[in-house]
Amino acid sequence: MTNIALPENIEKLKAYSSAKSEKLTGNTWLNANESPYTRLLEMRFDNLNRYPDPQPEAVIEGYARYAQVEQSNVLMTRGADEGIELLVRTYCEPSKDSIAIFTPTYGMYKVTADTHNIAINELSQEQLANEDTDALLPAIGEAKLVFVCNPNNPTGALQPIRKVAALADKLKGRAIVVVDEAYIEFCEDKSCVELIKTFPNVVVLRTLSKAFALAGLRVGFMLASETLLAPIRKVIAPYPVSTVVAQIAATALTSDALTQMRRQVSILNLAKKKLIQWLQNSEFVNAILCGEGNFVTLQLTDKQFVQQAMRQGLIMRPFVLFGEDNWLRISIGNEQELKQVETWLKQCQVTEEVS
Fold first, then answer.
1. Are 296 and 275 in contact (CB under 8 A)?
2. Residues 120-171: pLDDT tens digits?
3. Helix (H) or strand (E) holding 239
4. Which end of the chain has fewer CB atoms surrounding its CB within 10 Å, N or C?
5. Global pTM?
6. Helix (H, G, I), strand (E, B) or coil at 147
7. First vs last Cα of the chain: how many Å apart?
8. Nearest to 115 by CA among 144, 142, 140, 84
9. Are the beta carbons of 42 and 328 closer than 8 angstroms?
10. Handedness of CA 271, 272, 275, 280 (dihedral sign)
11. CA-based Rg of the chain, rounded to a whole angstrom?
12. Among candidates 60, 87, 62, which has minimal Cα distance to 76?
């Protein structure tokens, strides 16, 4: 056992608890906002003895075409999480700078800041939605990075492009507005990607983990001006993307693959509407956050219903939101998986009546 003392911020760090880190057992997984669709790939590699291209040309070209930006505006990362870490590491000075977040939101913003000893200026999702940009500025303070998860996880809230643009305009020369669009394919026309052409202080984070059904690949992208990306290119690892990952990612960005992805998104969005109807008809659901993304977050009348679902092998994601511990996020699965949710909802009623 080492006697080397940890830095105080690491000693006190509360690690992010991912959906897969809890080592749960079940047969229906609706807790990680994964796609229910699988991809069958046949690939051959005869060059794994060579180092990979740090920024594989085929992937950069394909994603630039898909996102309708220039190739110089694209940086490929190991999931959007690495994008978050690179921004904090590049633009924030430990023990001096801060970031701003709007809670409840994705937990890795806080974990990354805490890891690098960066302070957090915390605002609420309600403030972001209801206050004008001038009113937000005092609480944002001197933050170097302002994270806007859009659509927001776990609430699904979506800020209009004009609101993000106004925020970026007010923060010119002061802070970078980081728009995390992990779920944007489920509301594609609401993307803020066009803002990077107007505002040099806007970064858009993207991923292949959700709509592209490649969560296991760990591929993300940073979209921003060349000037903003230049220092990050100095900081990123020399070979961040493996040859295998690059080849699979390139196949996901072909015309046929994009058509298939959009078809799957349409199916999942329709399935989500059906799930919301079931939830609205259940007397054991207090509230439903009907936002965007491939998930629905709801408040149950009794958190014990989650334990009942787990005993049936149905794994969903419990949350503490707004100071209450009876919230649940359900990822949108396939028809069979969502039927199990419907069955569970009916059994919740039976359980309540018996007790």
1. yes
2. 999 999 999 999 999 999 999 999 999 999 999 999 999 999 999 999 999 9
3. none
4. N
5. 0.93
6. strand
7. 51
8. 84
9. no
10. negative
11. 21
12. 60
